[in-house]
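Worked Example 4.2. Consider the chain below.
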Amino acid sequence: MPHQYPLSAVVGSDDMVLALVLAALTPGAGGVLVRGEKGTAKTTAVRGLAAVLPGIDVVAGDRFSTDPADAGDVGPDHASLAGAPVERRPVRLVELPVGASEDRLVGSLHLERALAEGVTEFEPGLLARAHRGLLYVDEVNLLHDHLVDLLLDAAATGRATVERDGVSVVHPARFVLVGTMNPEEGELRPQLLDRFALAVDVAAPRDPALRAEVVRRRMAFEADPAAFAAAWAPAERELAARVASARDLVGAVTLPDRMLQAVAHVCAAFDVDGLRADIVTARTAVAHAAWCGRTQVTRADVRAAARLALPHRRRRGPFDEPTLEEDRLDDALDEALGPDDPEPDPEPDGPDGSDGPDGPDGPDGPAGDRADDPADDQADDQAEDQPGDRAPTDSTTEQVEEPESEPGAEPLGENDGETGARTAGGRSAGGAVAGVGETFRARLLQARRGGSGPTGRRSRARSAGGRRVGSRRPLPGSPGSSGAVHLAHTVRAAVPHQVARGRVAGALRLAPADLRVAVTEGREANLVLFCVDASGSMAARRRMEAVKTAILSLLLDAYQRRDTVGLVTFRGSGAEVLLPPTSSVDVAATRLRELPTGGRTPVAEGLLACAEVLRREARRPGARRPLLVVVTDGRATSGADAVPRSRRAAERLRADGVAAFVVDCESGPLRLGLARTLAEHLGAEHVPVDLVDAGVLAGLAGRGTGRAA
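Applying the procedure from the previous section yields the following structure tokens:
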């Protein structure tokens, strides 16, 4: 068996190790989410945790690891194992791959027995295996939605219910859910995020001496894993003994009412949603007191618990980092408890305030190994700053003539009506640049028809992994003819022919014509091409700022859904491919911020430029299904027959089968509805610019529901 890197040898990530230990001390409180860049020992620490946890008692042969001392913990094997001996085994660390199937997670019909004996028997999945242990999901933010739904159900009820393939089973599934993720790859669904009791952010250390120590230890481990593990064995035993002692003590820890009031006060001060934050913070404070060897919760325990339980629960902007201002936390505690007590606060490493077995110095404790673990890097394809994290720039103006601005709108600037050359500052000659407001969570734009593109998080698509939606016969020689066997449908196809095939008893008699393969549906990544009107009719300052904010929000959404993006702009007498399709959304955001406006509106030229970009991209290997987002007020004014030409260009794109949306930027009391008409010719969905914000859309839906009620 290969040696695991010791948790006690991890350097520098005290918060991460503390969060993992506290979650293990109170499994009922919930799990841990570890967020951080690649190569920060996230996976190393999680795998090392299982080695220091106390073993559990199980009935020999029980596939569901139920607790023989708990009369309420009963699984499907309970009746058949009456009188079986009890044995002790280590806690399991069960890893759920991002691409796992639904069958693998919840279990399914036992294939071998069904085919050989014609017997219906349940084969447990990963949820059963993880009962009373750790369920680890690396890159949890990339997990398919249908698997997230199953995890949420199990985490909420502590049981897994399987009703499929002729099997009806309910079994216990209580586990500590541990997820790791790189925020650059997208955020978690709010429902799953709330199920993590604790969350911690990790980053590589900037201290050269600490970085050198990380490398030194990692190289020593890789040179001789057995010798390295032996050298750290005393520290591992000491850490395991402390975990066992804290677990025994946690039931005896009391939470004074004064401290409970402090927990409630802190949660209210940070405006968190719901009451789960209060419950989790209180439980974590109790666990922290036990970890520090105390039998009563103190201010230090409440503070430590709040730092881990609240950041991901407090209300924030959709793209803001989940942080917790520690000065605000101290102020809230002062309001609830008065000034800090004169007694010294115990360090989280141990009750005596010393480094203890998990301190950062030497083999006495785990901190945070920042060495690159290969498992940490599997899906970290790129490390880019999110453009939405930058501070919005102020609008800048230049006084020019703007004949096409709306009456009463504040003019943004002036230009000569033609597309000028870009200058070093990002402006075009004769154009002015509007600022960008605060981004928001954009509504999901997706192609209506199913596709089969590369795995992503936007449009529905037939894929090799995902939710099972049916079955089909295998089609030799055609793309996608192979796939996972759909057992239930294969058996169902074979059953009517058993008498004709001479079967009386025993194994089913199968023929090639019986075989069915599963049809699964997931989501694909798309090529999102933005076609942006930068003409003079868009040059009212407030309008262009709103448009840029909406587009930037859609760009951030495309980044998190792993799309490629392109940017075409049109103004004056022509169109410009400002950014060919790329995965670098940061570059697209920069170009958008610098986008000047002014001149006439060549809508036809913009659409034709988009058609040419999409034709070129369609010829590339592994081309993604395009999604065209046209941002305009529809007022075509450049050249002869500007409006009819724009409609013919739109119909050409429609004939090519391009999925499209028209974001209507028209505002003011007088509206011509030209963007809506353009959407009809394009076969596109018409979206007013203010409804790009998912929050606004949800609010309108809520008000509509209230009226209907």
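The longest strand covers residues 455-472. Residues 342-430, 477-481, 696-709 have pLDDT under 50 and may be disordered. Compare this with Example 4.1 before moving on.
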